[in-house]
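Repro case for the chain-ordering regression, as requested:
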Amino acid sequence: MNTQSNTYTFLYAAIMVVVVAAVLSFTSLSLKERQNMNKEVEKKQNILKAVNVASTPANAVELYDKYIVKAIIVDSEGEVKSNDKVETFKVDLKKENKRELSKRDLPVFVFNKEGVGEKLIIPVRGKGMWGPIWGFISMESDRKTIYGATFDHQGETPGLGAEIANADFLAPFTGKQIFNQAGMFTSLKLAKGTASTNPHAFDAVSGGTVTSKGLEDMLLKSLGSYEKFLKSSK
Amino acid sequence: MSDKEPLFSAKNRKLLTNPLGTDNPITIQVLGICSALAVTAKLEPAVVLTISVMAVLALANVIVSLLRNTIPSRIRIIVQLVIVAALVILVDQILKAFAYEVSKQLSVFVGLIITNCIIMGRLEAFALGNKPWPAFLDGIGNAAGYGIILVIVAFFRELLGSGTLYGFQIIPQAFYDMGYENNGLMILPPMALVVVGIIIWVQRSRDKSLIEN
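-- result from build under test --
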């Protein structure tokens, strides 16, 4: 057969596209369930990490069920809309962030462990250098002081922006204040080298300026939408 | 596979070993530089990318080699691209389902694998004209040659830039107390080029036959 003819070339391309599409969609469909399960487990691990509870993929679900005693959805006015744990877990921040603030579902996870006490865990989501960044911030029961933080990213550069997921970067967040002494919401600001003495600032990642700024913006917007909830004592 | 030629004949062994030294894809052919800049700030992603490139390049080489007599020459680049892209997506999907942690590290490199010049270069230069077994060896050899350079560059950048290796602290705290500081320049991409340049320099000064007239 003449493999250089137009008909052959067209047929070849058409068959190739169909075969490749079939293989890829079959793989995607058959693996979807497992992939979603992995994502859920990862989210539970991240929630636990925000309150400094280490977990493995194997025991994350068990620990989550044990320590996350309650999960609620609040609105921007701080009113509770739902207290269904499963429903709260399923809230998709990517979709919520596109809605008007007053219509958003804002999830809050309540952690409680003997000897540690009650902490609130708030999910945050924003833009990094190459794609979305997200994480969880846990607050002391006074609702002003950060107890722990965990961040993750889709594609920040290893060694640079990706450092936001590192323990060394996360540890200094503990004890930071998101309200000033007058009770005004300040969030946390970027600082270069002076963050250790400033309760309202965190250090930038060297070589990861865009990611660091994205993180600052994410904290301001995400924590900001919880301002009224955090100020109320409900 | 040829009927009489043994699996690891001298010729086939060369396919594996040449790209490690005298025909290295990065230092001699000067391909795949972009990913060498991007992923070598830490040792771990460099190793993960090496393994992934090895899997994709070996498989793509074999597939293109099997199809080499049927591919219309006018659309051969597109065919190669589709094969590589499909393989990369397949690898990524399977990792996401069965090795989620690895897939998270890999996610940023998926695009880099598809655009890696070494892959298209080997498909064009070798797989289109050779049988599947030599094509497989060529894929493994070139990916390994690429990986060696990646690991060497990442070793120096992580050690001097962050004081760690594979995430573990190597430079003792006592050094820092005495005034030692990590070299922040090492973690920035330009230093990868400088380190690659030094490797090329060392390699050429040791093996004069590599120097062009």
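Ordering looks correct now. The mean pLDDT of chain B is 87.
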